[in-house]
Amino acid sequence: SSRNNRFPSLQLRDLANHIVEFSQDQHGSRFIQQKLERATVAEKQLVFQEILAAAYNLMTDVFGNYVIQKFFEFGTHEKKSTLAQKVRGHVLPLALQMYGCRVIQKALESISAEQQQEIVRELDGHVLKCVKDQNGNHVVQKCIECVDPIALQFIINAFQGQVFSLSTHPYGCRVIQRILEHCTQEQTSPILEELHQHTEQLIQDQYGNYVIQHVLVLRLAEHGKPEDKSQIILSVRGKVLVLSQHKFASNVVEKCVTHATRSERAVLIEEVCGFNDNALHVMMKDQYANYVVQKMIDVSEPAQRKVLMHKIRPHLNSLRKYTYGKHIIAKLEKFFMKTASAMGVVGAPDLGPIGPPNGGL
């Protein structure tokens, strides 16, 4: 950066008494950050003394916050601890502030469990405000990732009766996902209970669908019960045709097909195999549903795949006309090639005439 080039031999000790103003300057901040990575104990101490006095202002500063973060990375245990004390009493305003929220996240990653819990306690009573805030939600996510879940029971309590509204919120849905990943089974149980009451609406919601997908892909042994997955799959049964054509729900149907037990998966594919020609045609040419059909072809057992192929095959010619139908054709050709080569058949399979039927005009 220009300032570094203008002062090629500038050292941290040359900035004595000017560390704070340098930290609030784009080039100065970068210079200090770079030097801190390889600084001597004495140099670090010099910088530290000066930033400590202005710590709160630097935490919320566009360039200064990075200097503070560097200390949480490269400082001694003692310095991190001292800096973390500067956060006390200010956690909420920092969490809601654009740069302060990054400092809090970095602090949570770098300090003792005891200090983490002191920081976290200041959010008690303000959980929903933070979760719905564009900066605060990142802090709450970081708390859930880094802090002992037992110290986070107040977050679970704040979510009582709010799970649906948070799952359909652009930031809330992320926090719910973190809870499902990191909290204890006792804590996730009431959250999942509320999710199950609203599965149908959540599946079709632009944010809720991610929460439902998350339940399907979780390692349930630690964070939920197999029934949680089965309950979602059950609510998709009988609705595959409708949900597969829906922009958000189709992703959930795909995850159901992928993460179901063998018998559950067979039932879902069975549903599609039982469709009349028209319903199947609708699915294969639909911009969302065609991916569900593809996924079913991918994950089905050989016997069921054969039935599915057999049902699809008569539609091949008409599918060629549709952008999305072409995906299915490519998939079928790949599988027919595989089976053909497995049987020692040379050359591509004959999937019927490629041009328009009856030679066009």
UniProtKB/TrEMBL annotation:
Q: Where are the Pumilio repeats?
A: 14-49, 50-85, 86-121, 122-157, 158-193, 194-234, 235-270, 274-310
State the source organism's domain of life: Eukaryota
Fetch the SMART domains from UniProt.
Answer: Pumilio
Which residue intervals define the domain PUM-HD in the entry? 1-336
Query: Pfam families recorded for this chain?
Result: PUF
**Which InterPro entries would you find in this protein's record?**
ARM-like, ARM-type_fold, PUM-HD, Pumilio_RNA-bd, Pumilio_RNA-bd_rpt
Keywords tagged on the record = Repeat
The protein, known as: PUM-HD domain-containing protein
Organism of origin is Timema podura
Give the taxonomic lineage as stored in the record. Eukaryota, Metazoa, Ecdysozoa, Arthropoda, Hexapoda
